[in-house]
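user: Please review this fold.
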Amino acid sequence: MASLFVYVKGGTSLSRTRNAFRYPIFLAALLALLLLPNQQVADAHAYSAAYTTIQFTKSSVDMTYTLDGLSVIELLGGDTSNDLTLEPEQFNIMKDSFLELIRNQIVLNVNDKPQSWTHVESLELLPNSSPQKVELKVQYAPVAASQVVSLTDQLYSGSSDKSTNYVDLVTIEYGSHKANSALSGKYREWSMQMSDKDYSSLADSSSNADSQETDSSKASGSGWYSFFVLGINHILSGYDHLLFLFSLLIARQKFKQYAAMITAFTIAHSITLTLTVLGVISVPSHIVEPLIALSICFVAIDNMIRKQVSGRWILTFLFGLVHGMGFADILQEMDIPRTELAADLISFNLGIETVQLTLVAAALPLLYWLHSWKFSRRVVIAGSSIAFMLGGIWLIDRL
């Protein structure tokens, strides 16, 4: 009877252990089934990125506006093949709609009066661009000295759930000056006053315009704050980075382990973020993005296998190097002057760190409470299973 009792007791324990694993795996599988029919829901980079260059000369104001293809599809449709790309034939059909959209949403003002295009130079689906991009080049009438010029970007402003995920990285060139601004979230306007000195330095036409990289402190919105806000919005919409952070934190650890892990991640991603934007290193996004998804899967599996994790700061540092290259993607195509690069990079990184540290500070009390609960291990397995499934979906989608 004693042996039978031990057997039954052991069997019950084994059954409970199996059920502990089955329940979270069932939830993860269910979540995967819900997400698979619509890959856009599982898209970790919900950011819509535009790049605007405005060049002032004495004969015209030239604007180049570039928007990623996914955003064009999101705003106007046109993807009849449902493969999240636009074919040239599909784009030709929607050209007029795109022109109307940008004409109404990207507005250049002079002394608070909206300006009209004087000429549409080109509108094309850029070949061999990855990710796919649409580029529009237009001209406005020239501005005069002492006039106040502003650019207002209202794209996505009517969609409250997506407005904070859109950023317009603006480069302004006038004479020998260059300024930058990141229009995102609620901060959607850049402005400056064209002083007599600024106007006198303008080239006669765009063909001989001089765009030397010198400091421009007269342009509002080109300071550190717009890039600080960009960093905040970028991490909040980088769902893969947030899920990686969640996977790191949910495992039971001591405070000094959490501190070492967050420090390692911060140092690592700051290194590669800086080196990537400076052009010292260049790893293609089709390599970086799958590795980010893989990092989520790896940490999630580690959480499920090991009850007590140790030495995770080393793993976090290595994966942090990869995530830093992912953070840099949005800044790489922006022509930031060397005189502003340090301040903009630091501001962008501070925005990211502000969100991360805030989330960690909020999570730690909850985690300590969680791990004092006798069923905490099941919660860790459940959360890690879901993280593994989402990471797996992103990994397959990015390969």
Q: What stands out?
A: Residues 20-43+238-398 form one domain.
